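Model: Ready when you are.
Researcher: Fold this.
Model:
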Amino acid sequence: MDRVADEATWKPTLQKDAGPLYQAIADALAADIASGKLSAGVRLPPQRSLAHALGIDFTTVSRAYAEARRRGLVDAFVGQGTFVRRRVSSAAPASSGGLIDMSMNLPPAFDEPALAERLWSGFRSLEESGGLDLLLRYQEPGGAHADRSAGADWLSGRIPDISADRVVVCPGAQGALLAVAGLLAGPGEVICTESLTYAGFRSLAAHLRIQLAGIAMDGEGLLPDAFEAACRKHSPKALYCTPTLHNPTTATMSPARREAIIAIAREHNVPIIEDDAYGALVPGVAPLAALAPDIVYHIAGLAKSLSPALRIAYLVVPDVRAAVRVSGSIRATAGMASPITAALATRWIEDGTAASVCKAIAREATARRAIAAAQLPPNCYRMQDHGYHLWLLLPSPWTRSEFASRLRSAGIGVVGSDAFALGAAPEAVRIGLGGAATRQDLTRSLHIATDLLNEAPALSSLVV
């Protein structure tokens, strides 16, 4: 039988300016459940008792309890009362025994139940804000005005003076890349990019039959002299680059390097496609779009800083004319971004949930970088503050294929440099620190990787 809480002592602490009172009560209930103050099976005070204790009307408490049921926080039984719902955890066990796939660069999962409840609450609130129009109407291919405005708000701290009419809502960063690359270059034409570049862009270019010219890199990313030489040789239609937390090497351009790349692009009339997948996680770094808004197509996906499941990216274009042209590309290739996920992203941005999630991801990433630094031998990897992937440089005689194969046989997935290389691939692998479900799984996986690095490949071979 469910146990009964002390109805005289449970009284929610309500936050000022937390919105409607009934929602504040439901929020307080979610917070007390998350903190353990109210455990599963506890019976809540009767609605009239709580209304009297709070000095508010009965209907407000009744609405709050109904909201809590809608959120899945409680169950109500006629004649018995309202009880905190029993939940089955969906978290993966610390040692699941299956493949720990660190080949995908996923944001690390944070363990903050109250924040998770805010995310799910955003789903449930869509009915109130969107109604059937959200479900039964098409939208403009570039996104509804409210969603474009939310994108502008999300980016305003990084790109000054941004307006909604320069923001296009895209079906993920890959959808944005497809629209822009197809707009700027045609079959047989050239786009410059880093010599190690995002694997998804390589696939997209092959699909569009666009030629990619790889530009030499150093610890900051693109080398200006190499970019200028490529401009003279290829007359490229665009430059595609990731100047902040480069994928896969983690390189981040200095302000001086950014200015140099922009100057060369201006001299040769080369528009820039800036993939800013991690920009929301890195404070104080001005994106290229903030320095040269007239020539940069800035892609800010939400997958790395908020949720990969949204499949929403905000594309900032140089002017309204470009926005119309890109919207036409989206119409031709995808029709539109999902209005439901776009509306959900808007809700999370407007109510502050998105910013809170971004901070939670950053906190978990900090913890995971510390684990990596403690586990791996020094000077064998590149890793940057604010990121959650690393570039592991393999000592001789290890090769990337052999090292990845050995890790996979131990139940750990990583991705070799071949996936990113436009020329000769270095002996290196990318490791996504967010792929492991828990910090314990990450520690165990990196410990295995370190053991491999410290022995010769022949010693770990199982070939007979």
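Researcher: Now this one.
Model:
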Amino acid sequence: MPLFHDQGRADLRRMYTQAWQNYRAGQPLQPLEAQVAQIISEHPEYHALLEAQDASLEAEFPPEAGASNPFLHMGLHLALREQVGTDRPAGIAAAHARLCERLGGRHEAEHRMLEVLGETLWEAQRYGRAPDEALYLERIRQLSSSV
């Protein structure tokens, strides 16, 4: 079953705000909630938005206004961590480890990798095809050699 099967935008955003609220209250977390709360904790710039629960459900982040969508950003973190944890595409876990070592930490490495993931997904959507895993992995590997 897909991670966010049949969830609308508001439901998905509510999952983020609820995970953050439960984490801050010291409540027990489901595994996915714990992953989400970890990512949120690494992004203090999103805390105020997530604490304004109702506002976060309706907020718009138009790219033409230079706005970055925090929910998309955090979702890409989740996707990347899933890829690294399952090593799919094969080799991404090793590339991730090398980049973390070169950049001195996971968070910066992930942000660099998220740019490549976002570009790969955008290309797939634009051309109406599945993401090119081989090209994606090659771009990720190139990150390690460029830093």
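Researcher: Key takeaway?
Model: The chain has two domains: 7-59, 64-147.
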